[in-house]
User: Fold these one by one.
Assistant:
Number 1:
Amino acid sequence: MNLDNFTPESFFCFYVAFLRSLYLIHQNNHWKVKGNYFYSNHQLFQRLYEKAQSNADSAAEKMIGLFTDKSFNVAEQTNCINSILSNFTDEDEIANSLKAEKTFLRVSEKFYEFMKDNNKMTLGLDDLIMSIHNDSEEAVYLLQQSKED
């Protein structure tokens, strides 16, 4: 996943698109999960997609607040989501969600540094990124605990 050549607005758009992709990945896995741990994994995926949806909404609202709604283009979002989702096609639901969350953590770190380096970081944006990053770390922990041996 190439994270070069972004403007602050386009990187924020990609960041929101990744959160929306996490929502789609986790919700799809919520529907597809089966096996011995069906119910607990079904509930886990619901918890993860609901958190991803909430985080995407918060990030989009922050983006519009910082950069205006002109920076939020649904066609660009759709292209980003399609590109992101193409990287997460594993049939194992837990492995697929875990890979997506770990990738998001790397994107989140780069996004944070990029916003700081480009003097776009505000206290509110710092808090938002940190909070979402923390939620993703928690998701990684929960998914790792759910892996069957």
Number 2:
Amino acid sequence: KTKPTVTVMKTLLLSALALFAGVSSYAQTTDKKEIISVWSEGHRIAILQPDSITFGSKIEVPEAVDLGLSVKWASFNLGAVTPEASGDFYAWAEIAPKSYYDWSTYYHGVRDFLIKYNATDKLTQIEPSDDAATRIFGEGWQIPTEEQFKELLTKCTWTTVTINDIPGFEVKGENGNSIFIPYTGTLYYGSVLFPTSLGSYWTSTLDTEYNDQGEYFKVRDLTLSSEPRIGTADRCWGRPIRAVYTK
């Protein structure tokens, strides 16, 4: 196992804004409700009645585990610090977690009017500027492609295990190294569904037929008769990210 030497310091505004660097904020009172407004790259994000604001926190960079594949895999999910934690949830090609997921909160438009990754720009892979793993962990890290997830599935041994009461899969490479992929569930609207029986991870690949869909990797309790596979789903829903290291 190897761990790249990367030190990343980010300014965290409500942990949900952990990805934005170099932002400014101001507070204002409207109808006696506190509002924090954050500006990043010309866009305003407003948070109503924040619980707290934390500045200058250190981002934990995972170990880059060599499984004998074309890329190395992170030892834990984005936003987590241990292998069994689900970490943060993200919509496809968004760089910050949030509390509510549907088309009304999606950064890149709505189903019938997508402003990026659409039929006009013909982009089919998440660009580095929209890649949460790159933005948080730094250069060399990225959200896995569909092909990289397929490689993980077909060239490693998958075994159901439980770590600290969290079920998931031990994924072991032919070289004997392994990572743990926990069940995390999927975030629809404001609720996590199937948190103890489903792992649902975004790839960086857009669906080839419908550009309102992103491809995701699905792992499920094998007693439910569902093998690990690649699926597609609305880009606006929240899923965790397990990053890969390409250097």
